[in-house]
Design brief:
Length: 235
């Protein structure tokens, strides 16, 4: 098991000369990482632990997902390319019943004034999963990866004064997220990156129709996490 502050100079199956292989991170033990533009890219990348800020967007193709996503993820390296991760995110949005993919705002043909105006959605998401991070022989400061996660979220729909703006009160979700991305290390401990993932699962929502009994509605969920603003710190 890899401890904190470990720096890999070559991947498993590689050699001190930087042969091809795979790893959570690594570096060529020979040669220069200076680009043609003159920037000295790091020749080694710290392994062991990582914290990353991930944002800002997710989209529901089938079913509704709050669109703003601001997450913090911790990664731990098990051995060479194998990492596990845990994360939590704030979910935010602003919209009306059309945004939430409903037929109406839930207050009949003549809703009270202001009851169908846009409002704020707020909630949270948690997840855990596994990632395989590749070692790039000639560019050790570039770390592509693939990942899979299981997660669940919860969000509250908006209120306008004392009334909801639609018949739904809250929704919870459970989903499988499959995706990948890459990190570009500007320093041996600091990277920028991008991450995308397909989300497949279901939501369960509390529905309170006008003049009717409340019930819970389960719906299929298909969406995507699009996280082009990502900062990772290794330690």
């Amino acid at each position: 098991m890899t401890g904190a502050h470990t720096v890999w100079a070559a991947p498993a199956g590689g050699s001190a000369g930087g042969q091809a292989g795979f790893g959570g991170s690594g570096a060529s033990a020979s040669g220069s990482s200076r680009s043609s533009g003159g920037y000295d890219w790091p020749e080694r990348v710290i392994s062991g632990n990582a914290l990353s800020l991930q944002m800002p967007l997710q989209i529901g193709f089938v079913g509704y997902m709050p669109r703003v996503r601001i997450g913090l993820q911790y990664d731990f390296q098990l051995q060479l390319p194998h990492w596990v991760h845990f994360g939590v995110a704030a979910l935010l949005d602003r919209g009306s019943f059309q945004t939430f993919k409903l037929d109406s705002c839930g207050f009949g043909a003549n809703p009270p004034a202001g009851s169908c105006d846009p409002g704020t959605v707020a909630g949270f998401d948690i997840w855990a999963g596994y990632a395989y991070k590749f070692y790039v022989k000639d560019h050790p400061y570039v770390v592509p990866y693939v990942r899979g996660s299981l997660g669940g979220g919860w969000w509250k729909y908006p209120t306008i004064g004392a009334s909801r703006s639609q018949s739904l009160d809250w929704s919870g979700s459970f989903s499988l997220r499959l995706g990948g991305g890459a990190r570009l290390f500007l320093l041996d401990y600091l990277a920028l990156g991008i991450d995308v993932a397909l989300t497949l699962g279901f939501t369960q929502s509390l529905n309170i129709p006008l003049g009717g009994a409340e019930d819970k509605v389960t719906s299929f969920l298909l969406g995507m996490e699009i996280l082009p603003l990502l900062v990772e710190y290794r330690f």
